[in-house]
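We close this part of the discussion by returning to an individual protein. The amino acid sequence and the backbone structure tokens for this protein are reproduced below:
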Amino acid sequence: MVTPRQERMRLFPYTRKAIAAVGREGLVFVETLGSAVEYSGQMARFILSGQFDLRHFLQQLAFVGIDTLGISLIMTTFSGMVISLQIAKEMVKQGAGDYVGALVSMALIRELAPIMTAFAVIAMAGSAYAAELSTMKITNQVNALRVLHVDPVRYLVMPRVLAGIAALPLMNVITALAGIMGGLLVSHLLADVGIGQYLDSVKNQTQLKDVVAMLVKSGVFGFIIFSMSTTIGLNASGGSREVGLSTTRAVVWSFVLMAVLDYVLTYMFYGAH
């Protein structure tokens, strides 16, 4: 005899499974955020006590800042070219050619350069760190560090997070300039916007607040990306399947948190006034 509860369980089975999966993933997400906050506190104590490995930090800085810069430059340069392609001709027709450079630079500095650079870093460095640390965790290399009295947070997490915080603002300056130059090239060739006219527009409309906002955003994005990626890797458990799952979580969760924080930071700099 089928009980009422069994009868209810037959209704919408795939919907129920999907809701349960979302609930489990949400619980893991909250636990990971808690671990990331805990690791951040430990990193602060290590820094204040002078327990900082400069050589290891520079190695990670080179990986994040140099190895991912190429794809970041490609993404932001073509973003500037696309914006210029869409607006330059029409603005010149409307007699607003003097504002082409201003619009391209504002779009890049305020939003696209930090976002595109962070996307490239997540795809290349964030996923690599999550895979690396999760592999170390499931093969007991992290436990071996503890046996040797080496703190995994100090040795594995801290150099990577600090490298991300330091590298992304520097990368953003370079990628934003590349995007502006890409916009200059397209507007000059396709809409006959003068080079001096374009650069004067960029100079006159770009404010110090825009540059500060870009640097703050990129620093926060660097902290979020590498805090989440390293925490997910360090908290991995199980077999080889966990490596792929950790990599996927690092990419997806970094995107989600970055989108939320992008809105919050944009509102702080521009929306609150």
Q: What stands out?
A: The CA atoms of residues 102 and 205 lie 6 Å apart. The chain has ten helices and no strands. Residues 19-271 form one domain.
